[in-house]
Amino acid sequence: MGRGDWLLVGAFAALALIEGVATPDRPGQPFVTVLAMALMPVLLWRRTQPLLTCLVGFGAAAVLSLIQLATGSDDLGLTSMMVILLLLYSLVRWGSGKEIALGLPFVAAVVALGMVVAQPDWATIIGGSLFVLLFIALAAVFRYRADLAHRQHREIRNQERLALARDLHDTVAHHVSAIAVQAQAGRVVAAAQPERAVEILAAIESEASRTLTEMRGVVQVLRLDTNDAYSPQPGVADLPALARTDTTPTVGVTLSGSLSDLPQPVDIAVYRLAQESLTNALRHARSASRITIEVCRVAGDVSLRVTDDGLALSGATAGQGFGLMGMTERANLLGGSLSAGPGPEGGWVVDVVLPVEVSA
C-alpha cells in the first residue's frame, strides 16, 4: 500500500461524498453514499487480494441494482461507483488463473443484473459491454507484458550466473592447480634443498593471495547490482603474468600481431581460455616439462594455441568435465571455434580461433 493508493482512495471517497451532497433527493440516500464511501478502502488491497476486492466491489454494485429494482428508480448509482472497474482490472492483472475463473462469472452476472434492472436499449448494452471488456483487455495486455519482462529478466540473470560460474571456475581452478603443483614440488625438495622449499612456499602464498583477491571480486559482482561493481577484467595484456620459469613445468607466453585493440569480450575470452587450458595442462599433462601459450592476430581473427610436452590423457577421459565444456561454450558464444586433442608430436594441443569483430 503506497501513498498513491491512499490518494486514490481519498479521491474516490471525496467524489462519492460530493455526489451524495449534490443529489440529496436521489432514492436511497444517504445509504447509497455511505455504501459507496465504505467501498473505497478495498482499493488498498486490490493487488494482494484481487478476487476478494472484486467480489466486494461488484457485490456492492449488485446491492445497488437490487435497491433500484425495489424502489423503481431509473438511476440509483453514483459516478464514483465506476471504481469497481478498477477492481475488475486488478482481478485480471494480478489474480491467479483460478481467481480469474471464479471472479469473471460473478462480474458477468452482476453486469447482466444491472442491465436487466436499467432496461437500456441495444446500443447502450453493446457500448457498456465493450467498455467492461476494454478494462479486461487492458489488464490482460499489461499482465502479458509484465510476465514477458519477468521472463526476460530471469533469462538475463541465468546468463549472468553462467558467465560468473565460468569465470569462477577459470579463476579458482587455475590458481588452485598452481598451488597444488607448487606443493608437490615442495614435498620433493624440502629435505634436500630447504632454501628452495622457502621459495616454493612464497610462491604458494602468492597464488593463494591472488586467488582470494579474484574470488572477492566475483563475490562483489554477485552482491552488487550496478555496473560499477565489476572490477577490470584481465585480458591478453595480462597473459605474460602466467609465464613461469622457476617451476616444472615451465610456462612460456608468446604474443604476436596487433592485440592491443581487441574488443573487450574477445580480449577477456582469450585470457580465460588460455588460463583454463594452462590449468588443464598443469592437472593432466603427466611428466610435462614445458607448456607454451601462443596468441596471434591475423587479419580478422585472433588465434590461441596452448601446447605441452607431457603424456596426455586419452581423448575420452580428457573430454569429460566442465572445463572443456565451458571453454567450448565461451568460444562458440563469440562466433569462434575450439579444438582440443593430442598433438602430432605428443602432448596436448588446444587451438582456439575467435573473430575480432563480435556479432551482436
Automatic annotation (TrEMBL):
SMART domains: HATPase_c. One of its GO terms (cellular component) is membrane. The keyword Cell inner membrane does not apply. Keywords: ATP-binding, Kinase, Membrane, Nucleotide-binding, Phosphoprotein, Transferase, Transmembrane, Transmembrane helix, Two-component regulatory system. Residues 265-358 form the Histidine kinase/HSP90-like ATPase domain. It is an enzyme of class 2 (transferase). It catalyses: ATP + protein L-histidine = ADP + protein N-phospho-L-histidine. One of its GO terms (molecular function) is protein dimerization activity. Its EC number is 2.7.13.3. The chain crosses the membrane at residues 30-45, 52-70, 76-92, 99-118, 124-144. SUPFAM superfamilies: ATPase domain of HSP90 chaperone/DNA topoisomerase II/histidine kinase (SSF55874). This is histidine kinase.
